[in-house]
What does this fold into?
Amino acid sequence: MDLRWPRRRRWLAGAGALAVLVAGGAAVGTAAAAGGGGPVHRTDAMLPGAGGVHLDTSYFTTGGSARRPAVLLGHGFGGSKAEVRGQAEALARHGYAVLTWSARGFGASTGQIGLNAPGGEVADVSRLIDWLAARPDVRLDGPGDPRVGVTGVSYGGAISLLAAGYDHRVDAIAPRETYWNLADALFPADVYKKLWSGIFFSSGSTALPGAAALTGGTGTTGATPPAPGAGGAPTGTDPRAAAAAAGMTDPLCGRFTAGICALYQRVAQAGRPDAAARAQLEALSPSAVASKIKVPALIVQGQTDSLFTLAQSDAMATAIRGNGAPVAVDWIAGGHDGGDTEDARIDRRVTSWFDRYLKGDKGVSTGPVFRVTRTGGLNSTDGSVVLRGADARAYPGLDGGSARRITLGGGPQRITNPAGGSPPAISAVPGAGSLGALASLGASLSLDVPGQFAGFESAPLPAGTHLTGSPTVTVRVRTSAHDAVLFGKLYDVTPGGKATLPAGLAAPVRIAGSTDGTVVTLRLPAVDHDFAAGHRMRLVLATTDLGYASPAAPASLTVSLEQPQLTVPVDTALSDDAGPLPWWVWALPPFALLVAAALLVTGRRRVRPRPADPALAAVPLQITGLSKRYAKSADRYAVRDLSFRVEPGQVLGLLGPNGAGKTTTLRMLMGLIRPDEGEIRVFGEAVRPGAPVLSRLGAFVEGAGFLPHLTGRANLELYWQATGRPAADARMAEALEIAGLGDALERAVRTYSQGMRQRLAIAQAMLGLPDLLILDEPTNGLDPPQIREMREVMIRYAAGGRTVIVSSHLLAEVEQSCTHLVVMDRGRLVTAGPVADIVGSADTVLVGVAGELEQQLVDKVAGLPGVATAVREEDGLLAVLDGMTPAQFVAELVRLGVPVARVGPHRRLEDAFLTLIGGSA
Amino acid sequence: MSAAPPAPVPAPAPPPAAERTRATADGYRPGRTLRLRVEARRQLRRRRTMIVFGLLAALPFILIAAFAIGGTPKEGRGGPTLIDTATASGGNFAATCLFVSAGFVLVVPVALFCGDTVASEAGWSSLRYLLAAPVPRARLLGVKLTVALAFSAAALVLLPAVALVAGTVAYGWGDVELPTGGTLAAGDALPRVVVAVAYIFVSQLVTGALAFWLSTKTDAPLGAVGGAVGLTIVGNVLDAVTALGSWRDVLPAHWQFSWADALQPDMEWSSMLQGTSVSVSYAVVLTALAFRGFRTKDIVS
It folds into this structure.
């Protein structure tokens, strides 16, 4: 598989990542590595097998004339070459010449099923290797000797072992979920495994759609047993196969050879195997050529597999390793009973195995020598079972790397074998393996029939024990029957009493009957299971099991522990893989940190703090060239080119109509908004957001800001605490005196009237007696006595040498309390100076008029030379003279025909103000 | 200024005669402004805070009443769930309370505490007085985020803690029955519940950070809270679109129930690690956005 991304896709992913990054999020591409290489060519052909049999084959390559290693890919029992097409194509893309074939008796191939007989199926494989050797695009080790590996699942796995045993040209094998000794697999301890044998036989003798079930590893959810006896016309996918099944087979033996058929019928009827049957199956088994299998073998076996147990793979591994070949053992989660057979992972591992031993690529890791898949729990995002691996550098066998001895309790128990062996206990159920995988989560289908089993239980385990392998125990069985069969199971019992049977497996043992007692050492099923601390182990010996044929004769047995110890193999070398975490789990947070840092660094440029101006250290406020435009009104300045200066002890009135920019100026002064141009210096320090000099400033701008749920007092106290300054500096009592709220201080602010909030806010501004006090419209909402008091407070505050800035549009107010004025209009400074200078300007003349004054007459007056402005007032005319004396002005008025009633200097600030701003207020 | 007591207005003491050379008021240090304790006191007495804590503390009792009225839950068709084992023990009941509330009930307090914190100050106009005090802007955000997260954590802990106590009183102290079939010893279950709660908090960081960012963007507290909850719901909806495939892995909502992995017979960390990675990453970026925007924002509220 080519791990490179195609160029285009990489570009797209990069662009996508950038887009998401710009959007402010984190981008993670989860792109699967796309398969590279060219298209796979498939050539179907009927090739000659041994003995005139025709094999239906498919040959997959990516084309080209380069010589490459070959892989023979076998299929499962009851299936055909079609089921391995996906894996074949993947291997072909990865640079192999892949040949798949339907075994004789299956699919469109002719011939009869001989259960991988040396002269039948095994010889067929040798013919196929001959054919590969003749291909121009297959790499050769020598004349007629192609570089070839064989793999397959179940039936196809067995042929890989047998091919390696019978044909020296095979260079590497990867048998999956298969048998080593078929006699041991179907007749363990001389007990007939009737359920699986029946399924096995029926799937070869009838062509049913479900027949592919026995492949053991075609899906992730596991096999379902074919429904025996589902009658009607055969509905095999291949019409030729169907025709073959329907036409040329006998209804009892199907496509089996007569020898196999007879063996099955004999054993199935007897309910127990005979020596001939054992011998016949052993001769067909890989174990018969154990000493000749000397090629690197990746052995994959299922944990929920009551058909081909871990004991089979253990024997396989021991023998092949004994021959000096490299062996790796992989216990997958599922198996013939069902469950997740991890096909994708195993396919990858098989490919790596062949890369190493067929391509000779020494840089390829073949994975750990021993790997066990463990159930990690359920995936909370989609409910699937999470699988994890545990690795070890050596395969210790079923006796483990070491063993613990667990003492079991329980005296002799008398149990019965029911006549006919019914009702049976239930352990493994073909197809229920997906539940078997959940055994480690506490789910279990197993059932024991009361009276038919003996139980021996350990004390609660002081420490967790992880069983990996086949536990053993020695028991004594007394019975008057001729022989007896017991099924040993090891349950995990929770402190709450709930028992689960790991992997749902039971191990049978046949015991010769003896009234004195027969001592037998029982090998329990090989499993990988964690017994948690506090749990108990319970050994159960039952007389029946659904999957096996037990003696039909009724019997009574007395079962006792010969030795109270259970030997529990453990493999401490197995260490859990780090969970299969995607790469982004570790990459994302640092990436996010980088993005965050970039966001913070690249924010609007930071204005470098301007150094303090010592010359201005005594000047409470100096504003120079201040301008501000709000973002939404780009063409209109809120404040434009404003400059003025405030000296200590002044009460400065900031005057202007609504919208003149007073509040904007004060907000800039408080560091709440940034000026576009110009600077504000408070006691010589440049004001910027959060400038420490702001601590010398107390402000009340645009209304109160209090937490409505807190009392007035709590608000002031918490505000002062928020400044972080010592409580004693607050002058809380003086501020509260000014607020004059009395008992209302203890009420929540949300109950206050506007005037009360206003007073509290002014008190807050005065907390700590700041050197510069800013009050924005302080008399709004106050009643006249309070306004007068407010005025006195301000005057007195400034009298102490502090400075007060009051903004207002109530001009009469300012006139009475301020010493200096700054008049603004439309963001610009109109005038600044002492109140007396502005108000007392002799150039302003108020002319009382009798009757109405027409606007055009006013305009004429304004147009006179020596008159700055002239504005129509309520009952007269207000004019600012510029060079003309009042006497000349009166004369001019009379000349223009203005009905002058009275004339006087105007001293009211309001009028002066209106005059100054051109009467547009 | 009160009209009633005509007491003379006290004249403020004159400023120190010596010319000030310091640029700040006495005792002002930027690092001491708006300490965590002060901010916590400002927020704690709010009705909103009280109601959230009250509701979370009441929820277990409501569930106990519901189980008392409706009877012990029976195993549903889809296999056992945490709800079915709710009355098995105090630990089970606490897990059930988490299960029913993790999807939405626990999102709201986090969004509320983090989304309301700056926006409500802006709404009350108190923000400008804090900033003019002056509390440095980054410090204001840092303190407010810390306190909001602390309140969120307290809310997340309160629910299972009350549930554990109430459940133990109602159903006894015993092993925790797992929905997958096994059981956990009561002593083992407690650390697992702690892990689950800790993970829920981490997985809510993204909601909190989103709400906090919105909070610095708007003066309307409801806008920030609603926006964060709304976007969290959008995330849930997107996660339901299985066609998105592995892109859903980068949705925080995809991992919101991964805390249940802590209540499996074997701790399953991988989902929680992935969820933590996603949540923390988003939260870091969103928090940076909040600081970046607020640092130079014109405060016009």
